[in-house]
């Protein structure tokens, strides 16, 4: 589903390596959490996968489409195609929600599907009901709590049925209780939709919910084991 091979990215000012020969494979419907120190390149990695930034080397492919690098695949994306690729294949959940103040909850969630021309009102209704926000459909953004807004952001990321969700600190602006609820819903909804999920987080409580837990350290991904009362997570994901 998502394959990254020998990815490289350096700091623009100093040329020092930020991501160095990073490899990652995420299967369809699989969830992966990535932790690491501030400034280690976690958000940059998501930006590279989303096509917002261009790598210095290596390959990134989603669903067999090579969106960056030197892949020999015949269907390598050109720069002009990246925006269409994001609309078709990606859903992005931002830490700051990135919702539109002038829209109500329903229109915020429908926005990406409308851009794609893939509006499905019945699916959106079901998704909002699953996330517990259907009663908020006609409410303006100003009347929604932080947790409610983040649920809307998750619904917006999923409503056009993407193959892959990228979530950058999706609970970073939420209190502990709301963070627990929202992160549970994010992982649960992606699993039920058979959508792959890559989530960057500082929270171990969020990280342990993923099928595979990784840490970005010195430019590469390392498997992590988290021992909790209920489980020990070790990563089945290819990372080096």
UniProtKB/TrEMBL annotation:
Classification via PROSITE patterns: ABC_TRANSPORTER_2
ABC transporter domain location: 2-239
Gene3D superfamilies for this protein: P-loop containing nucleotide triphosphate hydrolases
UniProt keyword list: ATP-binding, Nucleotide-binding, Transport
Cross-referenced CDD domains: ABC_MJ0796_LolCDE_FtsE (cd03255)
A family per Pfam: ABC_tran
InterPro entries cross-referenced by the UniProt entry: AAA+_ATPase, ABC_transporter-like_ATP-bd, MacB-like_ATP-bd, P-loop_NTPase
Family of this protein: Belongs to the ABC transporter superfamily.
Name listed for the protein in its UniProt record: ABC transporter ATP-binding protein
Organism listed in the record: marine sediment metagenome
């Amino acid at each position: 589903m998502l394959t990254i091979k020998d990815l490289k990215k350096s700091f623009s000012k100093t040329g020092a390596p930020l991501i160095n020969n990073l490899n990652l494979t995420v299967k369809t419907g699989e969830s992966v959490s990535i932790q690491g120190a501030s400034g280690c390149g976690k958000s940059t990695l998501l930006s590279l996968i989303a096509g917002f930034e261009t790598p210095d080397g290596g390959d990134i492919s989603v669903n067999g489409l090579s969106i960056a690098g030197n892949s020999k695949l015949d269907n390598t994306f050109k720069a002009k195609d990246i925006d269409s690729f994001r609309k078709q294949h990606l859903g992005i959940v931002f830490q700051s929600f990135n919702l539109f103040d002038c829209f109500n909850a329903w229109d915020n969630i429908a926005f990406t599907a409308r851009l794609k021309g893939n509006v499905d009102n019945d699916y959106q209704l079901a998704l909002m009901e699953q996330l517990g926000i259907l009663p908020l459909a006609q409410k303006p953004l100003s009347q929604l709590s932080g947790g409610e807004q983040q649920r809307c952001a998750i619904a917006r990321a999923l409503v056009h049925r993407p193959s892959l969700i990228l979530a950058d600190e999706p609970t970073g602006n939420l209190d502990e209780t709301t963070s627990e609820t929202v992160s549970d819903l994010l992982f649960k909804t992606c699993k039920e939709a058979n959508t792959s999920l890559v989530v960057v987080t500082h929270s171990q409580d969020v990280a342990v919910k993923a099928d595979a837990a990784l840490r970005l350290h010195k430019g590469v991904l390392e498997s992590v084991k988290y021992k909790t009362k209920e489980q020990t997570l070790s990563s089945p994901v290819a990372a080096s």
